[in-house]
């Protein structure tokens, strides 16, 4: 399902991307340390989950490339919904599907099952936006993609903690 | 092939010429055929060969030969363009020649200027031309000057359009020399400036000479032409490009070091306008900083200039200009421009004493008036901060005559303003007020304040620490008289003020002479009031301050300790509250820890009899109604703590042993059960000597169902680093590896005790064990791990949260460091960790999930069978109500997903 499978050894599509600053660790508040106070899942928490995902092409995180941004994360804890919009660095980025898949898998692994998640491209930032969004929304295709060893390997690499 | 021959020829000629068997003219003749060859390439090679030989032998050339060669080369300059580079090399060789007759340098340069279009040559050849010029300028300065402005013009043509930085470095050098050595520039000054200034600003730093940056070179070339440079700088500051702004401001800054009033005169208004605009409008801090620095140097330059008798002093008009543009902004403390204006004024005022006087004498009245006009605390704070800035500037200039201090006129007003600030409910304003008062104090302007006792109550907090001794001496008489009055009044309304007085007294006790005045006062008060604790705290502060100075330290010890001990003894008889005792004890502890050994020995010699024999003869007012019996229960506790200070303080062995014995004796007499916690609290301090006496005692307590848990906590205390008393600063003897020794001495006993103990007290042993292991360096623990692990796993099932937490934090690093041993118990570990991940305590859940994460370090094949189960189980904490727990769950679950998966 991923269009740009030939990433091995080829030239980088966007060899010199703009790099953004990383936001620091979220400061721990007194409320978070209080056993009794429940902390709801908020946009920053979702953003913290996905901001450190590695880019498939660059030794940089999605946050550093501004592919994901906290303002483009919508979350409602009571309704159990999450919507993440991501922005490929260039409109013809063949990695868009792979990036979307990585975000989706990271959320699947990290959020409670009750959540319904929607990962899509920020409107108007990619040439084949609709095709990619459709693939990412299709549960069966996502499941099938993760059965593919090669693809799973790339996704796992994106999700591994940077050493 | 040809080049080989060429090279051999070169060597041959070189040897011959150097040895004298050939003259250079003979070489020329031998090369004749190739030099005159109609094919330009061959000609070029011939001439190149000749030039190489000349370069090697220029020192051997005779004057006659040089004349011929120069004529030949000048002639060749008209030749084909392929030949020119070789010709230039030859001329360079000749330009180094000492035998060059007068007049030829000028003719060579003229020929070059006339015949060669330098900028169409390659970089190396352009460099050769610059070298020729440089060489001539070094050796034939007078001749070149004879050429007049033509030389400058010729050089301008050579340089115009140069792009290579390496060449520019040389070219700038030449420009610099042209100007500094007073060559005639004639009508070409402006051209010369333009041909140089078009490179401004330069963002290139030569690699070869890191200490000589381009901009410095540049700054050394341009300032000589102020009439051109300053308009250029103004234009560049006004440009949109940040680097151009910064470079021009920095260059301006550098130029001010060499310029005087004369050079700046015509441009001052525009310079000020540009700097003001940059500081007012910029978003960049660097532009602001550079702008302020430039204004500072401008003002400094104007202040420094030597004036002719009839000249007008520009400084005053310049400063008036600044004041006029800035002062109205100062009146709007809420507006954006208030701080930039203040900074501009302060930058100018910081440049010289004269500028400082001029500006503050204008600004201070304005600000003082504004302070009164604005009633909101925030606005007042801004104004006061500005005043503070100006006052600080005055510290830079020393005034010899006291009466001439420019602040004298404002002293009263400033003091009353500070007083208003200090009495304001807004703490921010108070803080600024205190800082202002400190600055005023440092400038000896604060006499007014200290004479009024009302002043001191709010101000001491910061004043004390910031005062240098001389200042506090000035203040203390005033302080003391004020404090005394207040201290005597004991109406309830004055209570808080009274407390602050106490703090003030301790805060100003920074100097031995002051301590001698304050301490008796405090001790006098302690006897008769109900505020013993507050006074003790003050005494404690004084004690801490005394530590730095042995004289006051001993004085304190002499005076305060007997008095306090007397009170403590009295208290033990009349049964005062524990808090009071504790407060006194900490004062004694602090005072004792920093005594020198011999003083401590004297002290101990007097106090030991007090405790052992009830000898109260050295205490003041020693007429107690009944006998002092140190081994009564309550007294025991307090004296325990008192002793702990002595035990670890002296490095003198005899007194230390005496104290230790005394302490051990007290400890043994502690009635079991009553004050175990306090006893435990003092245990760490006694590690050096009586640890051996303590251990069995504690060990025995573990089997007691009631006291067991407390005793187990005692182990934690024993193993931890004690920060208050047992530190090297308190010259306590901390033995290295005491934890290891404790481990080897005690753990076998603990394990044995566990197996022998009855079911209900077993947790106590586990708790003790987990405390001991938790603090132990891991390398010591690893060899013992196999035998201890089963006990640790048992401790995980213990229902006490503290034990669980302690055990988990002990296990977590072990999982990382000894995965092989741990993997034998993987089944138990997975089950227990997962169970604990739903514990009611957040800290336990977090620790359990961290352990789940650490588990992934175990060998993958061992873990894989558990993967589906763990991933399923970890889905639950993902929905934990606490964010910190969810965070750990996410990272643990993520790692488990990656186990055995491709790409991990």
TrEMBL record, chain A:
The keyword Repressor does not apply. It holds the Pfam family FeS_assembly_P. One of its GO terms (biological process) is protein maturation. The keyword Iron does not apply. Residues 45-118 form the MIP18 family-like domain. Keywords: Chromosome partition. GO terms for cellular component: cytosol; cytosolic [4Fe-4S] assembly targeting complex; MMXD complex; nucleoplasm. SUPFAM superfamilies: Fe-S cluster assembly (FSCA) domain-like (SSF117916). Component of the CIA complex. Component of the MMXD complex, which includes CIAO1, ERCC2, CIAO2B, MMS19 and SLC25A5. Interacts with CIAO1, ERCC2 and MMS19; the interactions are direct. Interacts with KIF4A; the interaction facilitates the transfer of Fe-S clusters to KIF4A to ensure proper localization of KIF4A to the mitotic machinery. Interacts with CCDC117; the interaction is direct. Belongs to the MIP18 family. Component of the cytosolic iron-sulfur protein assembly (CIA) complex, a multiprotein complex that mediates the incorporation of iron-sulfur cluster into extramitochondrial Fe/S proteins. As a CIA complex component and in collaboration with CIAO1 and MMS19, binds to and facilitates the assembly of most cytosolic-nuclear Fe/S proteins. As part of the mitotic spindle-associated MMXD complex it plays a role in chromosome segregation, probably by facilitating iron-sulfur cluster assembly into ERCC2/XPD. This is Cytosolic iron-sulfur assembly component 2B.
TrEMBL record, chain B:
Residues 28-281 form the MMS19 N-terminal domain. SUPFAM superfamilies: ARM repeat. One of its GO terms (biological process) is DNA repair. Its main location: cytoplasm. One of its GO terms (cellular component) is MMXD complex. Keywords: Cytoplasm, Cytoskeleton, DNA damage, DNA repair, Nucleus, Repeat, Signal. It comes from the Eukaryota. It is found in: Cytoplasm, Cytoskeleton, Spindle; Nucleus. The keyword DNA repair applies. The keyword Transcription does not apply. Residues 501-633, 694-856 form the MMS19 C-terminal domain. Residues 1-19 form the signal peptide. It holds the Pfam family MMS19_N. Belongs to the MET18/MMS19 family. Key component of the cytosolic iron-sulfur protein assembly (CIA) complex, a multiprotein complex that mediates the incorporation of iron-sulfur cluster into apoproteins specifically involved in DNA metabolism and genomic integrity. In the CIA complex, MMS19 acts as an adapter between early-acting CIA components and a subset of cellular target iron-sulfur proteins. Component of the CIA complex. In the CIA complex, interacts directly with CIAO2B and CIAO3. Component of the MMXD complex, composed of CIAO1, ERCC2, CIAO2B, MMS19 and SLC25A5. Interacts with CIAO2B; the interaction is direct. Interacts with ERCC2/XPD; the interaction is direct. Interacts with ERCC3/XPB and NCOA3/RAC3. Interacts with RTEL1; the interaction mediates the association of RTEL1 with the CIA complex. Interacts with BRIP1. This is MMS19 nucleotide excision repair protein.
